[in-house]
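Please, structure for the following, as tokens.
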Amino acid sequence: MSRSVTPPSNMTTLGCALFATRWLQAPLYFGLVAAQGVYVYKFFNELWHLIHHVISGQADETHVMLAVLKLVDVVMIANLLIMVIVGGYETFVSRIGLQGHRDQPEWLSHVNSNVLKVKLATAIVGISSVHLLQMFVDVHHTPRHDLMWGTVIHMAFIASAAILAYMSGPMAAHEARARTAKEESRAAVVIPAQRGPGEAGAPQPGASGAEERIEAAGFPSRKLLEMFDEGRLRAPEPQVITRLGKADFVTRKANVVLLGGPGTGKTHLAVALGVRACQAGHPVLFATAAQWGTRLAEAKAAGRLRQELARLDAYPVLVVDEVGYVPFDPEVAHLLFQLVSHRYERASLIVTGSLPLDRWHEVLGDSATASATVDRLAHHADVITLDADSYRTRRLEDAGPAF
């Protein structure tokens, strides 16, 4: 059942009018787009002068270094502009709707005023660093007075950025907790109507952003942590599952490796953690290890493996299910290593496997490939071994003999 979106009843006409004034900022951002064009012209103008002086022999090493630093300076200011244009418009005016776009910047997926301020402060420190480096490179032509004040101003930028980052930490944590609680409450409204034997169901017209991410993730079925029977586990302790359910491993760009025999709930937990990540605002993509191998092999055959790995960067969480049941051929094993290596300290993986990590050479077929894969996968990871009787076998035993 769809619901029309109407303004809150307590929002007065005056409140609506004041809220609509945010659109007065839109022309300002288009003005910054024009300023971006000016910096593009300035960049190529500086580049042309550099090439001309080098060809004509008028440029020595110091001149070339200063010219290159000017180009870097222009690029960094342009980066600052694009951060203000896109992030500021998204934060203060209106949503742009880039969720799921293959080129969505990593920082935009969790942009807010605090993140934007820290990013801007960092960019300003970088620009100040380039200016100070220019002074030191051309120190013979830089007055000591300018050099001293340039250093003082640069240190002031560093101190202010550090203070801003320190102050924004608790605020960002509070906002993240509030956002997660909000997404969970929304999801709780639609989950009961969509539970089924194996299908998550089509997204409803009034579905939240979390629901859209869950539907797009490709989960084989809807699983929740609340549906997981922790009482049958001999290991780990229930609080370990609860801690993982906070989905903070995503922001740490850490991995979760779930190991155990068949029927111990590895896939259930992997999907449930993926759902929690979706509810926390992170796009997720699910596939079995064999499916990931096929996908990467097809990309490699088409000559676009690097582009495919870069495209997957749009997903802070990838779920790789069922490692260990079927041995991989050497090419697929190497492609899975490339996937793990590419995402190392860059984004999160949730991996399920039936074998202990020290036996992965039996699946990957090559001890060197297995060692390198496990080394990167487990370095920043929660490696959880599920010790329990197979719930499938237990269900058969509970059912008793058929007559």
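The chain has a mean pLDDT of 80. The chain has 15 helices and five strands.
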